[in-house]
Specification:
- The complex is a heterodimer.
- Chain A is mainly α.
- Chain A is built from 5 helices and no strands.
- The termini of chain A are far apart.
- By secondary structure, chain B is of the alpha+beta class.
- Helix content of chain B is 40%, strand content 24%.
- Chain B has 7 helices and 9 strands; from the N terminus they run βββαββααβαααββαβ.
- In chain B, a hairpin with a 7-residue loop joins strand 7 and strand 8.
- Chain B is elongated, with a radius of gyration of 23 Å.
- The mean pLDDT of chain B is 92.
- The chains are: A mainly alpha, B alpha+beta.
- At the A-B interface, helix 1, helix 2, helix 4 and helix 5 of A face strand 1, helix 1, strand 4, strand 5 and helix 2 of B.
């Protein structure tokens, strides 16, 4: 056995060599064989500081965080872009966006999201469209 | 966990920390370090062995360094030999007890489980949505959410709290639905290169997928290629990380009985 083996190259994968604490916590505090099931008599009690990495997904706090994220999103976009630029993006992306039902839902209220604000916008459209077969 | 075995507690305030179970015929490299940078050793019985180190009993375990040491040791072992990882914090009185109570008493079950893990490692896929992308998707698909958003923008902080909660709940539901669909897609893409999958609970409100895969070492290259394809497909929408190879934390099952 060796402890010096490095993971192979992962191409474009983000492969952190050392896992972050959160990754470690939800793996080794939550998974693995439970010793109590195999040993009883000579088990030694030792205090284990546990950190619960799990979150309550459906909570008011989560909801408020999401609402705040939506609000933050607006501010970011307003700062980054002037109105003319947004309109330009709207026109460029308009035809395709309309077919996706992006614009007709709420008119120009949604202009920020129809805007081609990132250079890789085109690249990610296929995956977005594919997930939108229902619309 | 309170101390329960007062009478059997060793006079020297150290215990025998158990990391995992391995086949008996493995060798440790000298640089193998355990919790607290301690030497690790193997306690052997029959065809199996336990990877152990001493651990002081008078201070609690669980610092970030402790956790990292436990996982680092097991993950390193897993690429060289099959290993059954034990959940963090398992301490027995001494090495003799490890041999008798842990190994001898459960020998066949552990041996069979190790045989199943031969040539297999775990990979953990963790994907997190790109916030602005996913919120944009949801607001464009849910007109009520978009309407609420406009309502909140025009209102004072106090009066909009209920609306915020409603909006947040809608977004949470929207993400949950997308997470389910995207998790399914990730599993469909990667399952052909793995022998088992385990879908974990999300650990973050914007998690897109959190899935463990048990992969044959021989197919690890193809699995990683398929995962790299997924990274490209999801780029801009979700950030994907692949952790591994890891010890098979998600694929060892505590039966509590004999094998």
């Amino acid at each position: 056995m060796t402890t010096a083996v490095q993971p192979g190259g992962g191409g474009e994968l983000d492969r952190p060599s050392g896992s972050g604490l959160a990754d470690v916590i939800d793996t080794i505090l939550d998974k693995g064989l439970v010793i109590d099931a195999y040993v009883r008599v000579s088990l030694v009690g030792i205090e284990v500081l546990t950190i619960d990495a799990r979150i309550v997904v459906a909570s008011v706090e989560t909801y408020l965080q999401f609402a705040e994220a939506v609000n933050r999103l607006d501010l970011t976009e307003t700062k980054e872009k002037g109105l003319p630029e947004m309109m330009k993006g709207l026109q460029e992306g308009g035809a395709e966006s309309k077919t996706k039902g992006v614009l007709d839902a709420a008119g120009d209220k949604l202009r920020e999201f129809a805007d081609s604000d990132d250079s890789d916008e085109e690249e990610r459209r296929p995956s977005r469209r594919r997930r939108r077969e229902e619309s | 966990m309170p101390a329960t075995q007062e009478t059997r507690r060793p006079e020297k305030r150290v215990g025998c920390y158990v990391y995992g179970i391995l086949p008996h015929d493995v060798e440790l490299t000298p640089d193998s370090r355990g919790i607290g940078d301690r030497d690790v050793s193997l306690v052997r019985h029959g065809q199996i062995a336990a990877l152990v180190s001493e651990v002081p009993l008078d201070s609690p375990l669980g610092t970030p360094e402790d956790l990292a040491a436990h996982q680092r040791l097991l993950d390193a072992a897993a690429v060289a030999a099959p290993v059954l990882p034990i959940k963090f914090g398992a301490v027995l009185a001494n090495a003799d007890d490890v041999a008798e109570e842990l190994l001898a008493a459960n020998h066949d079950e552990f041996r069979d489980a190790l045989n199943q893990m031969e040539g297999r490692v775990e990979y953990l896929l963790k994907a997190r949505y790109v916030e602005r992308t996913i919120l944009g998707e949801i607001l464009s698909e849910n007109s009520e959410a978009a309407r609420l958003r406009e309502e909140i923008r025009g209102e004072a902080e106090e009066t909009s709290r209920d609306a915020k909660i409603r909006l947040g709940e809608m977004i949470n539901e929207g993400i949950a639905a997308k997470r389910a669909a995207d998790t399914r897609e990730a599993v469909e893409i990667l399952a052909p290169y793995s022998v088992a999958t385990n879908e974990r609970e999300p650990t973050h409100r914007e998690d897109a997928a959190h899935v463990a895969f048990l992969v044959e070492t021989e197919k690890a290259g193809r699995f990683e290629e398929a995962a790299a394809d997924l990274v490209r497909t999801w780029r801009g929408r979700a950030d994907v990380r692949l952790l591994g190879p890891l010890a098979p934390y998600d694929f060892v099952v505590t039966s509590g009985g004999g094998g």
